[in-house]
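= Paired protein data =
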Amino acid sequence: MIPASTFKGKRVALFGLGGSGLATARSLMAGGADVVAWDDNPDSIAKAGGEGIHTEDLRYIDWRAVHSFVLSPGVPLTHPKPHWSVGLARAEGVEIIGDVEIFVRERRAHAPDCPFIAITGTNGKSTTTALIAHILGVSGRDTQLGGNIGRAVLTLDPPKSGRFFVVECSSYQIDLAPTLDPTAGILLNLTPDHLDRHGTMQHYADVKERLVAGSGRAVVGVDDSYCERIADRIERAGSPVTRVSKRQPLVHGLYAEGSRIIEASNGATREIVDLAGSQTLRGSHNAQNAAAAIAACMAVGVSVEEVRAGLASFPGLKHRMQPVGRRGHVTFVNDSKATNADAAAPALSSYDRIYWILGGLPKEGGIASLEPLFPNVAKAYLIGEAASVFAATLGDAVAYEISGTLTHALEHAAKDAAADPLPSTVLLSPACASFDQYRNFEVRGDAFVANVAALSGITMLVDVPTGGK
């Protein structure tokens, strides 16, 4: 845990007592703050009280005595309308911050030179974050990974000289971190997302820009117009920028040329790595992720040789285009994190001869946008509530069956792929939420892995989760 010593002796109000909120309250108390916390959920209040955290309805506290207000990132700050607690804090001019802001203040106070890489973007940030942490870890560096992936940032070990922090940041977390100042900050891409919480695409982009604008080295993917303009603004302001592209050569920066990642500088180019043999970094989207990871790692002193070693041994992100098993010429891939069509597109574009398991609780737009990728699908196996709607979209373009459950779909897909003389992939990439049949996409992915492990003659590439099929 990181004790929030920069708040010692200060009264801090906190709203939101989920996992990160509890971690934040513990950190503040360990640092000597006077914490008063609340939540809209009585069960969360009871749990916090059981841990000795002082709980009190924030509607009735004296806000004039409050130094800082810590808001959970899941609670609306601006849209569709500010949470009632935000209005109370603003009425008394109390700063509103989140756990990432507390972390950056602790780093500045105790180890301002310890390397800190922060990652954001609409798509790819979890893979990029995990990849950076892997490269740093296998190179022997003391590495802490957290934020919007894995552990809450304040549960990490405290900042100290030589300790590297790799922190994934959502737009909600950035909005609550006004002095965010990573050594290297990554903005991968921007497409419409979370507009219910940000109001407009421009506001969403403005929030994301703050992460790289405050960075010692900004690493920006420039394949969309929003990010291209952001890179230009940061550079005009006099800050160093490394541009990254998966689509086009660059005069300065890193770009993908097929599976090769090329570094360009002053007219000269060199190949950093060829990802052709990687099973966990397939596709142009992963070329962008890898290029951004390379740029950030090199910005904090990692050598090209160390980067190459890390890329070669990267095991992939769980539930995201994750090869989990192999039987003969058939590979089984867990892409359960693909909860909408856009998220499923990278996997469908990265494999040939796909036996595709999809379905669940459908999102707006369904899978119509994936039609250009249907030729890569040998057969589809439809599960969950979306089955009949998706069957209508597939029509005559793709052979399909309505399997109903994941267990039946995998059984039939494995059998059909085994009978196919060509190398093929059994792919779980649902393009749907899981909630009609599973608690979350992680449980769905674990169920897929467990079912793959139960097949005869399978060679597993990952550990089998406990808890059954």
Summary: The chain has three domains: 5-97, 100-313, 322-460.
